[in-house]
Amino acid sequence: MHSWEGDPQQPQPTPDFGDPHPSSELAPDRSIDPRAGGWRVLFAIGAGILLALVFATGKASATWQEIEHILGLQGKPQPASPGILSQHEIESLDRQSPQSQAQLLLERAINGYEGAGSQIAERVGGWRGHLKLNGKLNSLMTTALNANDLRVRAAAIEVDLAALNIEKDPQTVEVLAQQAESGTQQQRVWALWELGLLGNRGVEPKRAAQTLIGQLHDSNQEVRHWAVEGLAYLGTDETIEPLLQAFHDDSSPIVRERAACSLAQSGMLNEQQRRSVVPQLLNFAEDASLDAQAHG
Fold it and tell me: How buried is residue 281: exposed, middle or buried, by Cβ count under 10 Å (0-12/13-18/19+)?
Protein backbone atom coordinates (compact mmCIF):
# COMPACT_ATOMS: atom_id res chain seq x y z
CA MET A 1 0.00 0.00 0.00
CA HIS A 2 1.33 3.43 -0.93
CA SER A 3 1.83 5.91 1.89
CA TRP A 4 2.19 9.64 1.79
CA GLU A 5 4.89 11.36 3.85
CA GLY A 6 4.33 14.58 5.75
CA ASP A 7 1.11 16.48 6.41
CA PRO A 8 -1.40 17.05 3.65
CA GLN A 9 -0.87 20.34 1.90
CA GLN A 10 -2.77 23.09 3.66
CA PRO A 11 -4.77 25.58 1.57
CA GLN A 12 -2.99 28.89 1.24
CA PRO A 13 -4.82 32.03 2.50
CA THR A 14 -6.13 34.34 -0.20
CA PRO A 15 -4.13 37.60 -0.24
CA ASP A 16 -6.15 40.68 0.68
CA PHE A 17 -5.75 43.28 -2.08
CA GLY A 18 -8.60 45.44 -0.90
CA ASP A 19 -11.16 46.68 -3.45
CA PRO A 20 -10.29 44.99 -6.79
CA HIS A 21 -11.73 47.94 -8.73
CA PRO A 22 -9.42 50.95 -9.11
CA SER A 23 -10.84 54.40 -8.45
CA SER A 24 -12.41 56.30 -11.29
CA GLU A 25 -9.57 58.77 -11.27
CA LEU A 26 -7.00 56.09 -12.09
CA ALA A 27 -9.05 54.08 -14.56
CA PRO A 28 -8.14 54.60 -18.22
CA ASP A 29 -10.89 55.55 -20.67
CA ARG A 30 -11.70 52.21 -22.44
CA SER A 31 -14.74 53.48 -24.32
CA ILE A 32 -14.61 52.75 -28.04
CA ASP A 33 -15.01 55.52 -30.54
CA PRO A 34 -16.03 54.00 -33.89
CA ARG A 35 -14.82 57.06 -35.66
CA ALA A 36 -11.33 56.49 -34.28
CA GLY A 37 -11.16 52.94 -35.75
CA GLY A 38 -12.23 51.24 -32.55
CA TRP A 39 -14.45 48.85 -34.59
CA ARG A 40 -11.30 47.35 -36.04
CA VAL A 41 -10.12 46.54 -32.54
CA LEU A 42 -13.46 44.91 -31.77
CA PHE A 43 -13.31 42.89 -35.00
CA ALA A 44 -9.78 41.70 -34.24
CA ILE A 45 -10.75 40.70 -30.71
CA GLY A 46 -13.82 38.85 -31.95
CA ALA A 47 -11.89 37.02 -34.66
CA GLY A 48 -9.25 36.04 -32.14
CA ILE A 49 -11.85 34.67 -29.77
CA LEU A 50 -13.51 32.71 -32.60
CA LEU A 51 -10.23 31.14 -33.71
CA ALA A 52 -9.34 30.30 -30.13
CA LEU A 53 -12.69 28.57 -29.68
CA VAL A 54 -12.26 26.57 -32.88
CA PHE A 55 -8.76 25.54 -31.88
CA ALA A 56 -9.78 24.71 -28.34
CA THR A 57 -12.76 22.68 -29.54
CA GLY A 58 -10.61 20.69 -31.95
CA LYS A 59 -7.98 20.10 -29.32
CA ALA A 60 -10.58 19.08 -26.76
CA SER A 61 -12.12 16.68 -29.27
CA ALA A 62 -8.73 15.13 -30.05
CA THR A 63 -7.95 14.84 -26.35
CA TRP A 64 -11.29 13.14 -25.72
CA GLN A 65 -10.60 10.68 -28.53
CA GLU A 66 -7.27 9.85 -26.90
CA ILE A 67 -9.01 9.27 -23.58
CA GLU A 68 -11.55 7.01 -25.26
CA HIS A 69 -8.69 4.80 -26.46
CA ILE A 70 -7.25 4.37 -22.97
CA LEU A 71 -8.14 0.85 -21.84
CA GLY A 72 -10.13 0.80 -18.63
CA LEU A 73 -9.50 -1.61 -15.78
CA GLN A 74 -13.04 -2.95 -15.65
CA GLY A 75 -15.11 -5.07 -17.98
CA LYS A 76 -14.46 -8.22 -19.97
CA PRO A 77 -10.87 -9.36 -20.66
CA GLN A 78 -9.32 -7.78 -23.75
CA PRO A 79 -6.79 -10.16 -25.37
CA ALA A 80 -3.54 -8.57 -26.49
CA SER A 81 -3.11 -11.29 -29.12
CA PRO A 82 -4.53 -14.76 -29.87
CA GLY A 83 -3.97 -16.87 -26.76
CA ILE A 84 -2.39 -19.75 -28.64
CA LEU A 85 1.10 -21.14 -28.32
CA SER A 86 2.62 -20.40 -31.72
CA GLN A 87 4.27 -23.04 -33.87
CA HIS A 88 7.44 -20.94 -33.89
CA GLU A 89 7.50 -20.98 -30.08
CA ILE A 90 6.88 -24.73 -29.97
CA GLU A 91 9.74 -25.38 -32.42
CA SER A 92 12.10 -23.16 -30.42
CA LEU A 93 11.44 -25.19 -27.26
CA ASP A 94 13.54 -28.08 -28.57
CA ARG A 95 16.61 -25.85 -28.54
CA GLN A 96 16.08 -24.79 -24.91
CA SER A 97 17.07 -26.46 -21.66
CA PRO A 98 14.44 -28.33 -19.59
CA GLN A 99 14.55 -25.46 -17.08
CA SER A 100 13.75 -22.86 -19.74
CA GLN A 101 11.07 -25.07 -21.28
CA ALA A 102 9.33 -25.56 -17.94
CA GLN A 103 9.46 -21.87 -17.08
CA LEU A 104 8.15 -20.72 -20.45
CA LEU A 105 5.36 -23.27 -20.67
CA LEU A 106 4.24 -22.76 -17.08
CA GLU A 107 4.14 -19.01 -17.67
CA ARG A 108 2.08 -19.54 -20.83
CA ALA A 109 -0.27 -21.90 -18.97
CA ILE A 110 -0.80 -19.29 -16.24
CA ASN A 111 -1.70 -16.76 -18.93
CA GLY A 112 -4.19 -19.12 -20.53
CA TYR A 113 -2.33 -19.94 -23.75
CA GLU A 114 -3.93 -22.81 -25.61
CA GLY A 115 -1.46 -25.65 -26.12
CA ALA A 116 0.71 -24.89 -23.08
CA GLY A 117 -0.83 -27.66 -21.00
CA SER A 118 -0.48 -30.28 -23.70
CA GLN A 119 3.16 -29.28 -24.23
CA ILE A 120 3.84 -29.67 -20.51
CA ALA A 121 2.19 -33.10 -20.52
CA GLU A 122 4.27 -34.13 -23.54
CA ARG A 123 7.61 -32.89 -22.19
CA VAL A 124 7.41 -33.22 -18.39
CA GLY A 125 8.68 -36.79 -18.37
CA GLY A 126 11.99 -35.62 -19.82
CA TRP A 127 12.31 -32.85 -17.23
CA ARG A 128 12.40 -35.15 -14.22
CA GLY A 129 15.71 -34.73 -12.44
CA HIS A 130 16.72 -31.76 -14.63
CA LEU A 131 14.80 -28.93 -12.95
CA LYS A 132 15.81 -26.67 -10.09
CA LEU A 133 13.23 -24.89 -7.97
CA ASN A 134 15.11 -21.61 -8.26
CA GLY A 135 13.63 -18.15 -7.75
CA LYS A 136 11.85 -17.84 -11.10
CA LEU A 137 10.47 -21.36 -11.35
CA ASN A 138 9.45 -21.34 -7.70
CA SER A 139 7.62 -18.05 -8.19
CA LEU A 140 5.81 -19.43 -11.23
CA MET A 141 4.91 -22.55 -9.26
CA THR A 142 3.36 -20.47 -6.48
CA THR A 143 1.35 -18.45 -8.99
CA ALA A 144 0.20 -21.56 -10.86
CA LEU A 145 -0.85 -23.40 -7.70
CA ASN A 146 -3.05 -20.43 -6.84
CA ALA A 147 -4.47 -19.95 -10.35
CA ASN A 148 -8.24 -19.90 -10.75
CA ASP A 149 -8.02 -22.79 -13.20
CA LEU A 150 -7.58 -26.34 -11.95
CA ARG A 151 -5.80 -27.34 -15.17
CA VAL A 152 -3.12 -24.76 -14.47
CA ARG A 153 -2.80 -26.07 -10.91
CA ALA A 154 -2.51 -29.59 -12.32
CA ALA A 155 0.27 -28.41 -14.64
CA ALA A 156 2.09 -26.97 -11.63
CA ILE A 157 1.77 -30.31 -9.81
CA GLU A 158 3.32 -32.12 -12.77
CA VAL A 159 6.22 -29.64 -12.88
CA ASP A 160 6.69 -29.90 -9.11
CA LEU A 161 6.89 -33.68 -9.23
CA ALA A 162 9.46 -33.44 -12.04
CA ALA A 163 11.50 -30.89 -10.09
CA LEU A 164 11.39 -33.14 -7.01
CA ASN A 165 12.51 -36.10 -9.19
CA ILE A 166 9.53 -38.20 -8.05
CA GLU A 167 8.67 -41.34 -10.01
CA LYS A 168 4.94 -41.61 -10.68
CA ASP A 169 4.43 -45.27 -9.76
CA PRO A 170 2.84 -47.33 -6.94
CA GLN A 171 6.22 -48.28 -5.47
CA THR A 172 7.00 -44.60 -4.84
CA VAL A 173 3.68 -44.22 -3.01
CA GLU A 174 4.54 -47.14 -0.72
CA VAL A 175 7.97 -45.72 0.10
CA LEU A 176 6.46 -42.30 0.85
CA ALA A 177 3.70 -43.86 2.97
CA GLN A 178 6.34 -45.53 5.16
CA GLN A 179 8.29 -42.28 5.46
CA ALA A 180 5.12 -40.40 6.40
CA GLU A 181 4.52 -42.80 9.27
CA SER A 182 8.01 -43.41 10.64
CA GLY A 183 10.54 -40.99 9.16
CA THR A 184 12.08 -37.86 10.63
CA GLN A 185 9.86 -34.78 10.81
CA GLN A 186 11.34 -33.41 7.58
CA GLN A 187 10.87 -36.75 5.79
CA ARG A 188 7.29 -37.01 7.04
CA VAL A 189 6.39 -33.48 5.94
CA TRP A 190 7.80 -33.96 2.43
CA ALA A 191 6.24 -37.42 2.12
CA LEU A 192 2.78 -36.06 2.98
CA TRP A 193 3.08 -33.28 0.40
CA GLU A 194 4.31 -35.64 -2.33
CA LEU A 195 1.64 -38.23 -1.57
CA GLY A 196 -1.03 -35.60 -2.17
CA LEU A 197 0.52 -34.61 -5.50
CA LEU A 198 0.93 -38.20 -6.70
CA GLY A 199 -2.59 -39.17 -5.66
CA ASN A 200 -4.00 -36.21 -7.56
CA ARG A 201 -2.22 -37.37 -10.71
CA GLY A 202 -3.91 -40.76 -10.37
CA VAL A 203 -1.12 -42.72 -8.67
CA GLU A 204 -2.67 -44.82 -5.89
CA PRO A 205 -5.05 -42.08 -4.66
CA LYS A 206 -6.79 -44.34 -2.12
CA ARG A 207 -3.48 -45.41 -0.56
CA ALA A 208 -2.42 -41.77 -0.45
CA ALA A 209 -5.69 -40.77 1.24
CA GLN A 210 -5.37 -43.56 3.80
CA THR A 211 -1.91 -42.39 4.82
CA LEU A 212 -2.80 -38.69 4.89
CA ILE A 213 -5.95 -39.21 6.96
CA GLY A 214 -3.98 -41.41 9.37
CA GLN A 215 -1.63 -38.52 10.16
CA LEU A 216 -4.37 -36.01 11.06
CA HIS A 217 -4.25 -37.13 14.70
CA ASP A 218 -0.48 -37.08 15.12
CA SER A 219 0.85 -35.19 18.13
CA ASN A 220 3.17 -33.15 15.88
CA GLN A 221 1.45 -29.98 14.63
CA GLU A 222 3.63 -29.76 11.50
CA VAL A 223 2.75 -33.32 10.54
CA ARG A 224 -0.98 -32.56 10.88
CA HIS A 225 -0.51 -29.31 8.94
CA TRP A 226 1.09 -31.08 5.98
CA ALA A 227 -1.39 -33.94 6.14
CA VAL A 228 -4.06 -31.27 5.58
CA GLU A 229 -2.08 -29.77 2.68
CA GLY A 230 -1.66 -33.22 1.15
CA LEU A 231 -5.40 -33.89 1.39
CA ALA A 232 -6.15 -30.52 -0.20
CA TYR A 233 -4.04 -31.32 -3.25
CA LEU A 234 -5.23 -34.92 -3.44
CA GLY A 235 -8.66 -33.38 -4.03
CA THR A 236 -10.87 -36.49 -4.05
CA ASP A 237 -14.34 -36.74 -2.49
CA GLU A 238 -12.77 -38.85 0.24
CA THR A 239 -10.78 -35.86 1.50
CA ILE A 240 -13.75 -33.59 2.25
CA GLU A 241 -14.95 -35.09 5.54
CA PRO A 242 -11.44 -35.33 7.08
CA LEU A 243 -10.80 -31.68 6.14
CA LEU A 244 -14.09 -30.63 7.77
CA GLN A 245 -13.14 -32.59 10.87
CA ALA A 246 -9.69 -30.98 11.03
CA PHE A 247 -11.27 -27.55 10.65
CA HIS A 248 -13.69 -28.26 13.52
CA ASP A 249 -11.58 -30.27 15.93
CA ASP A 250 -7.85 -29.64 15.57
CA SER A 251 -6.21 -27.92 18.54
CA SER A 252 -3.90 -25.82 16.31
CA PRO A 253 -5.22 -22.55 14.81
CA ILE A 254 -2.79 -23.02 11.90
CA VAL A 255 -4.13 -26.48 11.06
CA ARG A 256 -7.75 -25.30 11.37
CA GLU A 257 -7.06 -22.32 9.11
CA ARG A 258 -5.34 -24.44 6.45
CA ALA A 259 -8.21 -26.94 6.52
CA ALA A 260 -10.68 -24.08 6.03
CA CYS A 261 -8.65 -22.62 3.15
CA SER A 262 -8.40 -26.06 1.57
CA LEU A 263 -12.17 -26.38 1.62
CA ALA A 264 -12.74 -22.85 0.36
CA GLN A 265 -10.15 -22.13 -2.31
CA SER A 266 -6.71 -23.72 -2.18
CA GLY A 267 -5.84 -27.22 -3.34
CA MET A 268 -7.54 -29.29 -6.03
CA LEU A 269 -11.17 -29.60 -4.95
CA ASN A 270 -13.47 -28.46 -7.74
CA GLU A 271 -16.33 -25.99 -7.41
CA GLN A 272 -18.99 -28.67 -7.00
CA GLN A 273 -17.02 -30.37 -4.23
CA ARG A 274 -16.55 -27.05 -2.42
CA ARG A 275 -20.25 -26.21 -2.63
CA SER A 276 -21.09 -29.56 -1.05
CA VAL A 277 -19.54 -28.46 2.26
CA VAL A 278 -21.75 -25.37 2.65
CA PRO A 279 -24.50 -27.08 4.74
CA GLN A 280 -21.92 -28.36 7.21
CA LEU A 281 -20.22 -24.96 7.38
CA LEU A 282 -23.58 -23.37 8.17
CA ASN A 283 -23.93 -25.83 11.04
CA PHE A 284 -20.44 -24.85 12.23
CA ALA A 285 -21.47 -21.19 12.18
CA GLU A 286 -24.02 -21.94 14.92
CA ASP A 287 -21.69 -24.21 16.89
CA ALA A 288 -20.89 -22.52 20.21
CA SER A 289 -17.93 -24.84 20.79
CA LEU A 290 -15.93 -23.17 18.02
CA ASP A 291 -13.80 -20.14 18.82
CA ALA A 292 -14.14 -16.67 17.27
CA GLN A 293 -11.43 -17.34 14.67
CA ALA A 294 -13.24 -20.42 13.36
CA HIS A 295 -16.55 -18.55 13.24
CA GLY A 296 -14.84 -15.74 11.35
Answer: middle
- The beta-carbon contacts of 186-195 under 8 Å, at least 24 apart in sequence, are 188/215, 188/220, 188/223, 188/226, 189/222, 189/223, 189/226, 192/223, 192/226, 192/227, 192/229, 192/230, 193/226, 193/229, 193/230, 193/233, 194/161, 194/164, 194/166, 195/230, 195/234
Per-residue pLDDT, 7: 39
CATH topology of domain 170-295: Leucine-rich Repeat Variant (1.25.10)
Distance separating the N- and C-terminal Cα atoms of the chain:
24
**Tens-digit pLDDT profile for residues 76-114:** 878 777 789 888 889 999 999 999 999 999 999 999 999
For residue 265, give every residue at least 6 positions away whose Cβ sits within 8 Å of its Cβ, in sequence order, or none: 274
Its pTM stands at: 0.75
CA distances from 162 to 11, 95, 102, 235 (A): 62, 20, 10, 20
* 203, burial (CB in 10 Å: exposed 0-12, middle 13-18, buried 19+): buried
Q: Where in the chain is the domain with CATH 1.25.10.10?
A: 170-295
